[in-house]
Design goal:
The complex is a heterodimer of chains A (about 350) and B (about 500).
Chain A: H1 2-23, H2 25-44, H3 51-76, H4 84-97, H5 114-139, H6 143-162, H7 172-179, E1 181-182, E2 185-186, H8 187-205, H9 207-217, H10 219-224, H11 229-255, H12 264-276, H13 288-307, H14 312-341
Antiparallel strand pairs in A: 1-2
Helix pairs in contact in A: 1-14, 2-13, 2-14, 3-8, 3-11, 3-12, 3-13, 4-5, 4-6, 4-11, 4-12, 5-6, 5-11, 7-11, 8-9, 9-11, 12-13
Chain B: E1 9-18, E2 21-31, E3 36-41, H1 47-54, E4 62-67, E5 70-71, H2 77-82, E6 85-88, H3 100-104, H4 119-132, H5 148-160, E7 166-170, H6 178-193, E8 197-201, H7 205-211, E9 214-219, E10 222-228, H8 234-242, E11 257-258, E12 267-276, E13 280-288, E14 291-296, H9 303-310, E15 318-323, E16 326-328, H10 333-338, E17 341-344, H11 358-363, H12 367-370, H13 377-390, H14 407-416, E18 425-429, H15 437-452, E19 456-461, H16 464-470, E20 473-478, E21 481-486, E22 490-491, H17 493-499
Parallel strand pairs in B: 3-8, 3-9, 6-7, 7-8, 14-19, 14-20, 17-18, 18-19
Antiparallel strand pairs in B: 1-2, 1-4, 4-5, 9-10, 11-22, 12-13, 12-15, 15-16, 20-21
Classes of the chains: A mainly alpha (about 350), B alpha/beta (about 500).
Amino acid sequence: MASSETAPAADQRTRSLASFLRSQMRNIAPFLTLIFLSAFFAFASPSFATIDNLGNILTQVSVTGIIAVGLTFVILCAEIDLSIASIANVTGIAVAYFTLQESYVNIPNIPLPGVAAILLALLLCAALGLVNALGLTVIGIPSFIMTLAMMQIAAGISALLVRGQIAYKVPSLISTLGSGSIGGIPWIVIVAAIMLLGGHLVLTYTRFGRYVYMVGGNREAAEYSGLNVKLILSSVMVISAVCSGIGGMLGVAHFGSAQQNEFDTYLLDSIAAVVVGGTSLFGGRGGIGNTIVGLFVLGVLNNGLDHVNIDSFLKILIRGVILLAALIINVYAQHLREKAAD
Amino acid sequence: MPEGQQPILELQGITKSFGGVEALRGVDFALLPGEIHGLVGENGAGKSTLMKIIAGVHTEFSGRFLIDGQETHFRSARDAHAAGIAMVHQELSVAPDLTVAENVFLGNQPTNALGLVQWRRMAREAGEQLARFGIDVDPMSRLGDLPIGLQQLIEIARVLFSGARIVILDEPTSALSPPEVERLFTTLRRLREEGTAIVFISHFIEDILRVSDTVTVFRNGRKVAETASAATSKGALIEAMIGRGGEVLEHSYTDDLMLPRPSDSSIVLKVDQLSLARSLKDVSFEARAGEVLGIYGFMGCGQQELSRILFGKLKPDAGTLAVDGKPKTFASTAAARRAGVALVPESRRAMLFHQEPVYKNISISILDRISSLLLKPAQERDIAKRQVEQLQIRPPVVGLDLGMLSGGNQQKVALAKWLTYPPKLLVLCEPTRGMDVGAKNDVINIVRDLRAKGLAIIVLSTEPETVLSLADRILVLKRGALVREFKNEPVSKDRLLEAA
């Protein structure tokens, strides 16, 4: 009889291991993708796996990383923010607009002291985030549509501020953080790391972070638990806009110029980083750890494709296919988890 | 029943079980053309199961099924439809974003030779059909813009005029106003004259007696009576439904129960002249500390809306709330919680996080009490452990995902959320629905403990047993209005049913 007792027990153990792996699918899959891509490029190109190139990758993903911190909060709440790149752009332009430019820059701007310029730029992005928040929670416009409108509004403000011109100067603090380095490490990487860490700490160890997960996990239940769901959703929209604004200011300093449509690619990159990392589009699952893995997957992919000899037009297609694969895993992992819970 | 007429539908010895539980046991049922046949019985007595067998929804059962004397076996609802059987389900199943005409012709729009929809013809015919029913609306208006009662009438009209020979109506009057009920009855009588056979299920026994020719009573999966409607009364039907002295499984509340003298402790909640669209009309009552107030009524009587208003999820059109004498207008559920109101809704899914561990489910409503900024997981777990022990939640593992617990234990978690820092007013909707006897008793004991601690508790239920087992004072809600208060007097299940 002993054997008939151990058999189900062993069976149960394998089953619980399998269900554990299945429930962790969304964390494991992106990590395996990262390892696979890194190994592939290291094998395919001798110039890929070097310390220098690691530095390149880190620098390349920094702006995306800063923007993705806020977006992670939004997606964890099962909302979306399509205005991140536009808000980054307008905030970068605003900080330049309030800075004294060289005489050949033909923009009727308002030079102010550096601190004031930075504060005004931050105020601008926070205000735009607040408009998103009010549209979403007070009027009840779905975030997809509300932030689509905001994308246009922010792009419009950008256009009005620079009028087709390019500004170059930003306050010295921004220019140091965006393009300077300390001990060989670019400041922008340090800022990105600090913001990612901060985002992680907030999500994991604070009451607000718990609320974000609970609202994303089951919004109705959050409301029936007496949480102020509208306030939480409003907060994440503002956080997202402010992170985008910081990314925009540092990005302008990093690129050395402020102009229209400078950040357009960052919208898809940031969403891709969050989702490829395994944060659920349905909310409540994932986090900054996932976003970091997603950032590296994108960074390694973008950087690695430059190291191998490949048709540059094909790269765009490859990126698209890998994104699709990640999305399939994301949705599939959700189904597996729901099954494991049943 | 007139002799010599061939039944249009005949069922013999129908037995149907769900996972070992018999929902129907050897039921015979016959339906004559040109007959309105009323069905009554408590929740779970087997009425709906039988109707779903007739409508081809349940296809696995034993027994004989004859249509026009021919033995038949439906494999799907489509087969039943083809045989001329149509059913209006209890829940509204309309497409709110389509026009009235599209809803009337749903899946059956008139088309021309090219397969294009003939809108003008559709609108005209829909208008004519609805006019026969006494409904005067623009067929091209969006259905969702109409009042719920009208939407329900339109859905009923669609089914009634679909050309079906057998029409089943499951609780058709719960969302209708009295004049609308009249219109429905007029139409039903006209269809009866045209030879349509109609099955009419309702909790409103007066409605059944007024419109039907024959009434069949179900209890515990058995048909216990079939009589001509003219030869019976409400009292007799209720007695047959609840089976006085019959199969008593658990406490059946058929005998009189003495309600205690009303307490004169402080008034925690005062509700004055609360109204909400079609759901509630001038509802006024008060709830006192250390008292369990039961609110009983049929499905759709406005209980759900009332509970949502008390918790700040819905805003009333008129009327006021006062907690501890202070007038309140709750802007959100968070405001209601801060004022000391707690709600456990009837659906566990609506208030629990299935993918999160038990302790996070228990702590979510009190996080602001134990942490200002940073979480204190150890303290959360301690609190959860205490609640799990006190409420005997099984398995007693606070780190387990909630989805792994049984329904009864999930219901206890839903209660536990509010108990660490007890609210002033606890509103419970259907607190024992779908529970086995043991879990039910546990919940009853928990509620009694809370009452002893001085909470004001409101229990809303559509099951008389639930209210009778818990309440010190009982209000009966009927179509959105309070119609009767039981206090300091004997009450029983039939007295409650009689009032509702």
